[in-house]
């Protein structure tokens, strides 16, 4: 482990190696001191702190370093704080159990298992009430992140979060002295606040930052969306906030208090204790998941079974149920010939589990062929090589199962599949005019340069999504609605594609719980990501982003006129709410006619409703289809048929 020391003006820095030994599991630093937990043993060790007694027998699961103290959480969630001489600090909460701990210069805070906040030390400011997931503490000031990703701050001189950041959803927050920083969920951009420089311009870097270290697994947490853009194969970035709400990641129960047997121990008692301890240790960790009964008693470790028989079984079940009746099973040789052995020159894009190729079959049919690739960069969670294979198999089966039983003119049609020689391939109808994303952001000229054409495309896509939500049995939630997953055929009919991340919806209008958030940065519903509650309204949020793209011409994540990256919601919705949508309309499209401006403003209100922070306030896809139909009629009409006062939520 090495450290760099900067000069006062920040122009010079000196490097020094301060540790070389057993791997360090966790690391935290105060203004001058550094402490970590030695891997395996979890013993506390500190550097650049000669006065600190490093011979302390404390076993922590996490630590937080202050000015002249360090606090830690035991594996059972109990708090202990130590000074430089190793003595414990008073005024520390006792009896409670906590999941998160943080330290400022002279105070510390922890989040309990029920997500409430408790602070001690030299506290300044009014401590907020509510539920929280993570903390950042500085010098006489503090910030806490709530379950939905928004942040609240308090402290000396009425310290608060700047107004411009109060609607921003964060992944994680950190603090050092007076400066606080956080990574935005929607864009992975770094924002800072706490002094005059940052408060006037919170954007630190003009681009994405690595939102966390790349790890081999996310035990007790979940991967962040699009980790593949930062990590090599087999690695992922874990959500720093984890699952802190009570019940999502329970801590092991503390051992029961032993009844005193007296103060005198004899040799038989000691021998019994040692032997018994060895036997318990040999039985495995107490907090290890339960071992299947068939693996107990013989001392053998159960091995993961190959995924191939599982895939074949599911394919067999799918065919036996009659779902694959209209699908053709292609031979691998035919597909290899059509794609020139999956040549790069025929590659036209990527999907949820692999690359997509343009091909012409022997019978003259023009098709799109999607091939699962182990190295594919996907927008859903994956880990080791075997886990990636499982994910690819799951995405392959999802598309095969869903599209084999769906039939709608606004859903891309699946023609057949190939499962041969360890290959997973799906064959679709070819969409001649590419993706909506390309027409909005990459092509200089396009037939979609009229408001009526754009509203027609939005209506087509909305009808496809409505079919998934309302008419498919069981209901299907797409989970990756975005402009690049809306394709255009030869007649400019829009169709929804890429069902690799889709899920069958829960019954009785309930929500899926504890699902790893899937999707694409900029389109993911913040409420779904934070609370892990999936409903059809998550697709509605993503579709709202597409509507904002259609109206403004901005990408979901784009740079504003000053070169600062922003989310399309932050760029466009404020103007819609102020009835000034004309200021952010796509300038590549001719100014709307009097009838068109009513339709465009109306669609703006629909889009703003779709991206409301709380899912319950968003319209349904049926509401949206109805609103888009009215808007298209308005564009094509010779007299008004709607007013701006109506929107999807009031229709």
UniProtKB/TrEMBL annotation:
Enzyme type, top EC level: transferase
Biased composition (Polar residues): 297-308
GO molecular function terms noted in the UniProt entry: ATP binding; protein homodimerization activity; protein serine/threonine kinase activity
UniProt GO cellular component terms: membrane
Reaction catalysed by this enzyme: L-seryl-[protein] + ATP = O-phospho-L-seryl-[protein] + ADP + H(+); L-threonyl-[protein] + ATP = O-phospho-L-threonyl-[protein] + ADP + H(+)
EC number(s) given by UniProt: 2.7.11.1
CDD domains hit by this protein: STKc_IRAK (cd14066)
Binding site for ATP: 370
Protein name: non-specific serine/threonine protein kinase
Provenance organism: Nyssa sinensis
